[in-house]
């Protein structure tokens, strides 16, 4: 995999260079101190992975991603884990490395990038745009999976919440796992599955989606942080 580094701190550049040299299937083709310097390079070269710092001198890493047409797999590097929430809706980000990070953690990020590159992007997109019908009070309601904010379980009932409606019917939360894109939806509590696209912030054991407060279960929190690329 061809990769580049966009990082303005020399010590951080050196660590990334050292780690990339240790991975046989990773080919570092260039390093840049600013996003603008890398812009023209990306327009004329094939890059599979970008190691991208968030705090850059000319434009932030997150803003830079939005300017790239057909961006490659991106691994964010930063000293500020709070920025992870801001990157939830950017599907091209495959992992989030908080400085300082170990080689083992770096290697996990590389494996995620490899999986993303080898998995056709259309599969995830098609499933997110997939529609289903649920039977509520003998009426079939059409839902686009990508519009679901979260799904809540209460005893024998499921409530599916979107920006415009709430639909409740008899079902079990476990039946929803196979219906949803696993890199976009995940369980954060025994009674809740959330859509990462709509996460606004996390405070303690509470996750906020628009005006909704979602509890984070103790047994789910560690996995949640890993899924959100904070650890």
UniProtKB/TrEMBL annotation:
Residue numbers carrying 4-aspartylphosphate: 53
Stored SUPFAM superfamilies: CheY-like
The entry's keywords: Phosphoprotein
Domain HTH LytTR-type positions: 132-230
PROSITE patterns: HTH_LYTTR, RESPONSE_REGULATORY
SMART domains: LytTR (SM00850), REC (SM00448)
Pfam families, per database record: LytTR, Response_reg
InterPro entries noted in UniProt: CheY-like_superfamily, LytR-like, LytTR_DNA-bd_dom, Sig_transdc_resp-reg_receiver
Domain Response regulatory: 2-114
Gene3D superfamilies assigned: 3.40.50.2300, LytTr DNA-binding domain (2.40.50.1020)
Cross-referenced PANTHER family: STAGE 0 SPORULATION PROTEIN A HOMOLOG, TRANSCRIPTIONAL REGULATOR-RELATED
Descriptive protein name: LytR/AlgR family response regulator transcription factor
